[in-house]
């Protein structure tokens, strides 16, 4: 994170001229060197200006068509900038959300389909061939132009590009890769690019995609083969798995530092991710989490996204037409976090499930703690990292702060307030220099108490 | 020991290097925190004029800073201080000096004690500054203007803290080959591809963007939103209402939110669709 003035090795000075004369000076300075400057500034595409309303119409259709792709990440890539380049764009490791939609989701990238014409008939997809949704298609240059124009105004971190499958998977993939290639090689664009890969596309095209993109993804769509063949007959897990494997191998090869002087080219520096639809079939939460666990371990996925199945405008008769179960999706994300950052195994979370489903009333970490009270209380002044990570209300950063503070002091209950905002939640499960939960941990009412007032009221109102 | 009260004047509200020089000089002269006041030159002009105090407006050229350099401070303090200095709180200079004094007078491990009141306050202030910087990188929105065929970009932004100078490096690295200016109510940063300059503030323009990109952005914003998932509190907590006046899409939020329930219920009520004729498989 940039915090110092000296960070840039560029001369920086303060001027006391008034605003108007300053701007005029700026304009005249720009004019003086305009010959050189114009070469460095991206040329305005005149053809693009003349067809604004056509572009707007296509954008409305092709952004609407892309909204069910949950991925919005712009983080995790290697740091780069444009000070030594001819274009624009930078990435700094952390993602930036430039806006938020009323659904609470961040808008970080220009997320569009290259086209929503599609030859496949996946039942859950608004763009399936049997849907009556309006169709459109961008040219490669239109997407490139739109990405650069939005980026220059700091609306976005980069591009997320997917596509319906037209002509053939390889043809579609070639078009998608061409957008990224033009951005990188013609315009020297150094912002973030996420490409969706087409499952049946050739490994050569996947290899090219990784050279230009920060992240690649293929949707696994559904956790079981039977669901996938019922709801997306043209897709199959075997070929999805092959593509994921190809990408994993290419990423590993690119990060192999044993090459020394012959370092291989960068490949998808932000890794690969995937998405599963939740609630379109009858798969339980434990089936979904098992699938995620295999994907993380086998293909070194960076993220698995869970997308609660949502009613779509041109719905198929096969699918449930009900509001999306957002609480279920939320619990799955919480369980996913436990597996990735808190050292939980999938089967430990599954052991808490009732008939395969996670408890909606409590988060999975708290649910696990309440069923394993023999693990607690944990002494914050002496417990190891793994034990501290199991304490409800204590996050990864909180654990690091405790370990750091412990080097020079013994912690009291009041100290925990500087470390966590959920001290009340932690109290039954920890001991400090001046606190012990004593009978609180053994209390039969502990579960109800931890549920929180709102949930308690819901419980009592349904019971009466 | 200096028993008389001393006042240090800093030129710019977020000038870390200047504060650092002053602080070194004060440490070298063993000025205790209780006898030291800080003020920013542009703020409260004339307020201290009548107070009988020693002025330290410039680091003294003869001041022996070699003893100060013997007092080592952790790198963690330096990086934390560089962030805290941007905060708007008037007492930030005094608080930083007090912590510096404690670090160099017997409390070497102070930085690792996150539960200490002073350190906790500094951490909270640094956190607020970092969050403000993050929001600035997110919500600065350029408009394009053409001046004799050259594209020029201007943005107006109102941060909570004095973060323009600390954040302008990000925009230089990202928009390296563009000509841009970012203005806050206090001052304005100008970049011409090589040199970064600061001048007085330039007010927000009402001129429209040359390519009318605002309209396309609004089109995108309303198309990407899923009306079946309405979570206004989550949206407002990440994109606070105070930023909305400089974000063109905010005009759509009320409209999209109020129509959302109806749109999503309509999708459910309409029921499944009749497959189109193009889907017939032979």
Describe this structure in words.
The complex is a heterodimer of chains A (464) and B (282). Chain A has 464 residues and is an alpha/beta fold. Helix content of chain A is 41%, strand content 9%. Chain A starts with 11 loop residues before the first strand and ends with a helix. Chain B is of the alpha/beta class and 282 residues long. Chain B has 9 helices and 8 strands. Chain B has helices at 16-28, 66-70, 75-84, 92-103, 117-139, 164-174, 213-224, 232-238, 250-270; strands spanning 6-10, 36-40, 54-56, 143-147, 150-156, 180-183, 187-191, 196-200. Chain B has a 5-stranded mixed beta sheet, with helices on one face. A 3-stranded parallel beta sheet of chain B has the order 2-1-3, with helices on one face. In chain B, α3 (75-84) crosses α5 (117-139). Chain B starts with 5 loop residues before the first strand and ends in a 12-residue tail after the last helix. β1 of chain A pairs parallel with β8 of chain B, so a sheet runs across the interface.
Summarize the structure.
With 464 residues, chain A is of the alpha/beta class. Chain A has 19 helices and 11 strands.
Index terms:
A: 464 residues; alpha/beta; 19 helices; 11 strands; disordered N terminus; B: 282 residues; five-stranded mixed β-sheet; 9 helices; 8 strands
Percentage of residues assigned to helices of chain B: 40-55%
User: Count the strands of chain A?
Assistant: 11
Q: Which two chains touch over the largest interface? A: A-B, 111 and 104 residues
Q: What is the terminal-to-terminal distance of chain B?
A: 97 Å
Neighbour order of strands in the largest sheet of chain A: 4-5-6-7-8-9
Radius of gyration of chain B: 26 Å
Amount of beta strand of chain B: 5-15%
Percentage of residues in DSSP E strands of chain A: 5-15%
Biggest sheet architecture of chain A: 6 strands, parallel
What oligomeric assembly is this protein in? heterodimer
**What's the SSE pattern of chain A?**
EHHHHEEEHEHEHEHHEHEHHHEHHHHEHH
CA-atom Rg of chain A in angstroms: 26 Å
User: How many individual β-strands of chain B?
Assistant: 8
Strand order of the largest sheet of chain B: 4-5-6-7-8
Mean pLDDT of chain A: 84
Main structural class of chain A: alpha/beta
Q: Biggest sheet of chain B: strands, sense, closure?
A: 5 strands, mixed
Q: What structural class do helix, strand and pairing data of chain B support?
A: alpha/beta
